[in-house]
C-alpha cells in the first residue's frame, strides 16, 4: 500500500512540475493548431469564420499551379541553401579548428551574421543589390558597363535570396562542426598517421565519418528552419518576381496578413505542419541510424 501511495504521490508531483510547460504548449501550440484546422475547412471574411466548405481551401492551394509552384520553390530554396551552406560550413569549421593565426578573432567574427535578425540581414542585402547605389551592382556596372536589377530576374533573385540565407545561417553549421571536431580523438588521428595515412585521407576517411552524425543533425535542423522561413524572403524579395521566390511559408503569411484570406492561409499552414511532421520523422530516423 505504501508503495502504491508513493508511486501515486510521485505521479502527482510529476504532473505538478510539468503543468506550466503543458499549459504553455497547450495555449501556444495545440490550441492554434486546432483553430487552424477548423479554419481551413471553413470560408472566412477577414477574421470572421463562416460556413463549412470542406476541402475547398486545400483545393485552392493544391488545385492551382501557383500552389505547386510554391512547394517546388520551397524545395528548391531548401536544397540550394543546403548545397551551399553545409559544405561551406563544414569546410570553414574544419579550418577554424586548426591552430592558425587570429583563430579566436575569426571565430568571433564569423558569428556576427548569426547574431543579426533576418530583417536586418534582408535589409543589408537589399542595400547591397540596389540598382542605383548598391555595392554589388556598382561593381557589376564597373565590370560590365551596364546597370542590373537583380530582383527583376527569377534566376538572380533566387541566387540572392539563397546567398543571403546562407550568409545568415552559416555560423550555426560552423559552430556545430567545430564542436564535433573537438570530440575527435587525437589518438585515432595519430594512429592513422602511423599507418601511413596522409592529411587528406585522415580528414575524409577518419574525421568526417566521426562527425557525420553532427553534420546529419545540422542538415535536418537547417532544412526545417529554411522550409519555415518567412521574414528574410518577405523583406528581401516579397516572393517576386512573379512569385518565383515565393515559398509555402511566405504564401501562408501573405494570404493571412496581406490579402486577409485566412481560410486559404490556414490550409497553407496545415500543409506546412504536415510536411514538418514528415521532416521530424526523417530527423528521428536519421538520429536512430546514427546511434546504431
Detailed description of the structure:
It is a single chain. This protein has 292 residues and is mainly alpha-helical. It has a single domain, classed as MetI-like (MetI-like fold, Orthogonal Bundle), CATH 1.10.3720. Helix content is 77%, strand content 3%. It has 13 helices and 2 strands. The chain has a two-stranded antiparallel sheet. A hairpin with a 2-residue loop joins strand 1 and strand 2. Helix 12 packs antiparallel against helix 13. The radius of gyration is 24 Å and the shape is flat.
Task: Give the strand content.
Answer: under 5%
CATH superfamily: MetI-like
CATH architectural name: Orthogonal Bundle
CATH class: Mainly Alpha
What name is given to the CATH topology? Answer: MetI-like fold
Helices and strands, in order, run as HEEHHHHHHHHHHHH
> Order of strands across the widest beta sheet?
1-2
List low-confidence stretches.
none
Largest sheet: 2 strands, antiparallel
Rg, rounded, reads 24 Å
Keywords:
mainly alpha, two-stranded antiparallel sheet, 292 residues, 13 helices, flat, MetI-like fold
Give a quick summary of the entry.
The model has no long low-confidence stretch (mean pLDDT 86).
